[in-house]
Amino acid sequence: MATPLVETVGLNKFFKAPGGMLHAVEDINLKIEANKTLGVVGESGCGKSTLGRAILRLTPATSGQVLFEGKNILQYGKSAMKRAYRDMQMIFQDPYSSLNPRMTIYNLISEPMRELYGHSLHRAEMDERVHRIMELCGLPRRHANSYPHELDGGRRQRVGLARAMVIDPKFIVCDEPVSALDVSIQAQILNLLMDLQEQRGLSYMFITHDLCVVRHISDDIMVMYMGQAVEYARKDELFRHPLHPYTKALLSAIPSTNLSRRNHVRHMLQGEVSSPIDPEPGCRFAPRCPHASEKCKEKYRLREVGPGHYVACTMCD
């Protein structure tokens, strides 16, 4: 079996907080194959963005491993990590705050090349790359001397995409790249991401809370709840056969214009969200789960219940 392009093993990220340690990301194990997309879904505050930042070492991990092409990048020094960033990039959620308002679009897009290649890249080659990636991302060349505030949200997000793509990376973390955009612009950006993946063989980790979006773009899906992975499966398998009560609740809340689903069962969540600060062992969804039992208080991890389908729930034993 081929080595995954990206793999995490027992990845943890804890933050010091008043009263203890906040478990933002706990014991995450995932694999992303070359030319594939892993969708990461869950409600706000579940640790999706922290996970993406920890994988790229933008936020230092507390423990665990991040393997890129089989090598643990958490052990890299500064120079080795700088070289690794030629293959790993990120598209940030807010297309405005992630762009320096004092820099032109040309300088924003060319900045990764200046940082990673320095003076080894000639100006003519830099110009050619910037203009080529602008055209590829649907940005007219006339915007090269514009500033971010002069562009609308869709074009600003294309600038963020172009900036990530200009150094020809192999892997991109997309942190809710369409959540701040209108629906019509969302579709354009999603189709652009998929076209670029097909043309360049890219791998994505696509972070979102929109299940319709993740179904459209992903190959595999991981569902997170309060820093933990509760279910992991192929896209079609997850939507056809969800097993974890939290996943079922998420999928049942998807709006639909299909009249045949008018009487479909809604899985309503009740109860209080438990604290992520020094949480008790066991399932963190238990306080809101209608099927919770004493066994749920035990430490529980993802287990394979079908080919490629993993779930952390005592109901699936």
TrEMBL record:
A Pfam family annotated for this UniProt entry: ABC_tran
A GO BP entry: peptide transport
InterPro entries in the cross-refs: AAA+_ATPase, ABC_transp_ATP-bind, ABC_transporter-like_ATP-bd, Oligopep_ABC_C, P-loop_NTPase
Domain ABC transporter: 9-251
Plastid listed as a keyword: no
Regions that span the bilayer: none
Domain of life assignment: Bacteria
Cell division in keyword set: no
Keywords: ATP-binding, Nucleotide-binding, Transport
Molecular function via GO: ATP binding; ATP hydrolysis activity
SMART domains listed in its UniProt record: AAA
Family statement: Belongs to the ABC transporter superfamily.
PANTHER family: ABC TRANSPORTER, ATP-BINDING PROTEIN (PTHR43776:SF8), TRANSPORT ATP-BINDING PROTEIN (PTHR43776)
Protein name stated in the entry: ATP-binding cassette domain-containing protein
